[in-house]
């Protein structure tokens, strides 16, 4: 599913720059502007956040799959910003009870879209197809006060193991 946000979504899209918020709000922020190796840096940051949130170490196959999907989507969104938008400026992660939101901010003007028709054997062009397949929803948000965009994806959070009674 692909959608476009108008800035009035439930995720607080009209909030000021998110790095100013304390960690208790559920957001984690990493500046990537001008950094060397933004994809591994983003993956390492995401692993650390998932560890903090109790996703790591993975307790079961469902949690392992959810973690791998998040890391793959982060990699694909940051790579897409590097290849097509002049670089990724920031990565933001936010969790809610059943959903994890990944946002990658860049200064590019293009509009990401899965390559259609998708051909698995063709080199390149698979990033947004992967994001689309692994995400519950994804889209692009633009802001009027600066150039560029935020590409976001929402993924299912792993179910919490039930505690024995």
Quickly list its features:
165 residues, alpha+beta, 6-stranded mixed β-sheet, 6 strands, 28% helix
List the helices and strands and how they pair.
Blueprint: E1 2-4, E2 27-31, H1 38-52, H2 61-84, E3 88-95, E4 99-106, H3 127-134, E5 137-141, E6 149-156
Parallel strand pairs: 1-5
Antiparallel strand pairs: 2-3, 3-4, 4-6, 5-6
Helix pairs in contact: 1-2, 2-3
What oligomeric arrangement do these chains adopt? single chain
Biggest β-sheet: count, sense, barrel? Answer: 6 strands, mixed
Cα separation of the termini: 39 Å
Strand content: 15-25%
Order of helices and strands: EEHHEEHEE
What spatial order of strands do you see in the largest sheet?
1-5-6-4-3-2
Number of strand elements: 6
Rounded mean pLDDT is 82
Residue share in helix = 25-40%
Characterize the overall form: globular
Category from helices, strands and their pairing: alpha+beta
- Rg, rounded, reads 16 Å
Please tally the helical runs, counting DSSP H or I stretches of 4 or more residues.
Answer: 3
Q: Low-confidence parts, pLDDT < 50 over ≥5 residues?
A: 1-24
Q: What do you see in this structure?
A:
The protein is of the alpha+beta class. It has 3 helices and 6 strands, in the order E-E-H-H-E-E-H-E-E. It has helices at residues 38-52, 61-84, 127-134; strands at 2-4, 27-31, 88-95, 99-106, 137-141, 149-156. Strands 1-5-6-4-3-2 form a 6-stranded mixed beta sheet. A hairpin with a 3-residue loop joins strand 3 (88-95) and strand 4. Helix 1 runs antiparallel to helix 2 and helix 2 (61-84) packs antiparallel against helix 3.
């Amino acid at each position: 599913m692909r959608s476009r946000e108008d800035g009035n979504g439930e995720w607080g899209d009209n909030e000021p720059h998110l790095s100013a918020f304390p960690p208790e709000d559920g957001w984690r922020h990493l500046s990537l502007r001008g950094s060397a190796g933004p994809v591994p840096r983003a993956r390492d940051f995401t692993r650390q956040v998932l560890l903090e949130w109790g996703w790591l170490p993975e307790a079961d196959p469902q949690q392992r799959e959810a973690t791998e999907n998040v890391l793959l989507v982060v990699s694909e969104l940051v790579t897409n910003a590097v290849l097509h938008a002049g670089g990724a400026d920031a990565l933001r992660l936010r969790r809610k009870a059943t959903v994890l939101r990944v946002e990658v901010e860049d200064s590019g003007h293009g509009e990401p879209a899965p390559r259609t028709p998708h051909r698995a054997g063709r080199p390149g062009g698979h990033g947004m197809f992967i994001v689309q397949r692994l995400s519950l929803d994804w889209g692009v948000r633009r802001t009027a006060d600066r150039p560029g965009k935020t590409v976001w994806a929402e993924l299912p959070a792993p179910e919490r193991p039930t505690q024995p009674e």
